[in-house]
Structures are given as structure tokens and as C-alpha cells.
Design a protein that fits this description.
This protein is mainly α. The protein has a single domain (about 5-140), classed as Up-down Bundle (Four Helix Bundle (Hemerythrin (Met), subunit A)). The protein contains five helices and no strands. It has helices spanning about 5-25, 30-65, 70-95, 95-130, 135-140.
Length: about 140
């Protein structure tokens, strides 16, 4: 794997672990713990999306000359997921763990499909295409 692929895969794993903790707490009926875990996940995924949208995607688009390809799809999927995050947050404020878990099941499938496309297609393409992927990696690490 390349440097960007490895780094972003590891960040996916970190976000996924936070997400699964929120789901476990909700399944146990522990709304305060689910809320705290979901808040930690929300912050982590917002940071991840920010690294991609503000650093990685523009670098890919510049190198490829294409703004309507895979990065457009990824941005659209980010928007869909953000809408689900908001709906899930609302369910937790209402202490509706059943609805939270129903949304969580749907979101998990979306995230798995999204991450697979990024990790198998977009990230490796970016690693190969960029003249200096290490510089983009440094920019992503500095993005905070």
C-alpha cells in the first residue's frame, strides 16, 4: 500500500471503532455513554472528511484534471452520511435508541461501501498519481 492509503485506512479504523462503541452503548440502553461515544465519533469523522475534502480531493483533482469523477462521488456520499449523523444525534437527544440503532445499521452499510471505494480505488490511485504523496500526507496530518 502507499503512504496515503495506509494513513487513511488507519484513520477509517479509528473512526469505525468509535462508531461501533456508540452502537454498543445504544444497544445496551446506555444513552449517556452512547451520546459521548457518538460525539467522539462525530468529531473524528468530521476531521477525516476535512482532511479528504480540503487536502486529498483537491490534490487528486489537480493531478488528474478531473473534478467530476471519484471525488465528486465521495463528496456526495459525505453529504449523505452527514445527514444521517444529524438524524442519529437527534435520536439520542430524544433517548430513542431503537431509532438510533435502525439508522446505525443503514449508516454502517453506507460507511463500509464508501470506505471500500476509497481504500481500493481512490487512495491507491492518488498514491500513484501524485508527484509527492508525502507532501499531501504532511498537509493532511497538519489539517486540524
Amino acid at each position: 500500500m502507499g503512504c496515503l492509503t495506509d494513513f487513511l485506512h488507519e484513520d477509517h479504523v479509528r473512526c469505525d471503532d468509535l462508531y461501533l462503541a456508540a452502537e454498543r452503548y445504544a444497544a445496551d440502553g446506555d444513552v449517556p455513554a452512547a451520546g459521548a461515544a457518538f460525539s467522539a465519533f462525530s468529531q473524528a469523522i468530521a476531521h477525516h472528511f476535512g482532511m479528504e475534502e480540503n487536502v486529498l480531493f483537491p490534490a487528486f483533482e489537480e493531478a488528474s484534471g478531473n473534478t467530476q469523477g471519484p471525488t465528486a462521488v465521495m463528496r456526495h456520499e459525505h453529504t449523505q452520511m452527514r445527514e444521517m449523523f444529524e438524524a442519529m444525534h437527534i435520536t439520542l437527544t430524544r433517548q430513542d435508541t431503537d431509532q438510533f440503532l435502525a439508522l446505525a445499521d443503514t449508516l454502517l452499510v453506507l460507511m463500509q461501501q464508501h470506505n471500500a471505494k476509497e481504500e481500493r480505488i481512490l487512495y491507491p490511485m492518488t498514491d500513484r498519481m501524485l508527484a509527492d504523496p508525502q507532501a499531501v500526507l504532511a498537509d493532511m496530518k497538519a489539517h486540524g
